[in-house]
Amino acid sequence: MNNKHSNEKINSEDKCDNCGVTDSKQFWDFEDGSILCDKCNTNIGDEWDEKINEKFEEETHKEIKHVKVRSDARSDFGSERKSNMRKYVVGGAILIFVLILGFSAKNILAGNVSTVQDYSTNTQANNLAASGANGNAGAGTSGTGVATVGSGNVQNVKLALVDFSYKMTPNKIVKGVPVRIEVDASTLAGCMKNVVIKDFNVRKTITASDNIITFTPDKTGVFWITCSMGMGPGSFEVVNPDGTSDPNAAAQAAAPKPSGGSCGASGGGCGCGG
Fold first, then answer.
1. Pick from 207, 263, 255: which is nearest to 230 by CA?
2. Number of compact structural domains in the chain
3. 35 touches 44 (CB < 8 A)
4. What is the model's pTM?
5. Would residue 244 count as lying in a domain?
6. Which tens digit of pLDDT belongs to each residue from 126-143?
7. Is residue 15 part of a domain?
8. Structural domain boundaries enclosing 184
9. Could you tell me if 130 and 245 lie in one domain?
């Protein structure tokens, strides 16, 4: 048995439930942890054990509650992080879409959109060729005959791409007289915009705002118009000032058409659709 408690260790809860004494000098400690009240000779060790157990349970409950709060906080943080990640992904996708849309709109306004042309159903080009065949090609022309000389001593003709072939209307011009070709740019796409008349050193990239080709034919015969890769061949004839054809014109017209590269239909070539 140990000495009695000192007053310094006494608080309002340290009392004997039997007699109510709170004087620590009346309490005796035993090695088994029990306490004896000297006044009423009652062992109050069980009561102290209960207090200790209650205190322990209270502290344990507080710790469990604290752990749960921390766990909930981590769960909330994880949910918030996932939510923010979804927002970033959706926002990024929207931004990319807006950029693509803006870039496409810019190209459309600039007239640089790569559009796949269906040459076989190009109504405007077919109408142009048909008007020439009917002798109604417009000012300065005479259908499929010889181009007439307009103001300024210039032969005026028109050019379009029909069924993937260049068509000049009218298709005969006179040697020695300057020629002015008005090209229908709306019928051209990709490398077909690069018009080449090799025999007269003509090479020009056609745009909607720059669609005029000029040259002076200095020889007679049948000649070819192609793109820069030799595709879309279309022929025209240069005749003498008296309207007669070159002796070799028939043979030239019957000769095989020029052949060029691929249009990219098999994954290569120039990509005429753009």
1. 263
2. 2
3. yes
4. 0.47
5. yes
6. 444 444 444 333 333 334
7. yes
8. 119-254
9. yes
